[in-house]
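[DERIVE STRUCTURE TOKENS]
===
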Amino acid sequence: MNQRDIDADLVARVQRGDKRAFDLLVIKHQRKIMRLLSRMIRDPAEVEDVAQEVFIKAYRALPQFRGDSAFYTWLYRIAINTARNWQAASQRRPLPLSTIENDEGETFSPIDNLSDIGTPESQLASRQVAQIIDQAVNQLPDDLRTSLLLREIEGMSYEEIARAMDCPIGTVRSRLFRAREAIAEQLRPVLDNESDKRW
């Protein structure tokens, strides 16, 4: 039985009145939802409040859930919309991508991946590249940034992103292309300077 089938079974149990099955869905997906929300909302206490609101909305809407998409895709859509509403209400900007949590719950900085055991100059350049990427991602419009985070951080497929963001798959492709182009544009001057120095 795959994850989607397990979720479908739990959803069916909730729809028949089994509240414990919903607790299992929350336990199963809470960390992913918190991770997604923490990239859209700065204050960790607010992230918890918004996550709780997401699960309350999901519980109330679950009787109408038909299973056209995977449960977690449907839940991500609720989370994205709830976070957007929270941002609009509070006029706050998303959290910079200074740390990332992997599936085991370990956190690391993008700088860790970009740094090599090279010279101090190469380490400085790696940190500079990471900072530029971080700034570029945070300057993206919400739809582009969310698409990029769902693809690159959460590892969702184009189809899953389209369902989560409630838009056509072509729109997802376009958003990802534009997001990557915007980041590449910010990186070009630094990378061009680095290649001039090396040769």
About this structure: The beta strands are 100-101, 107-108. The two ends are 55 Å apart (CA to CA).
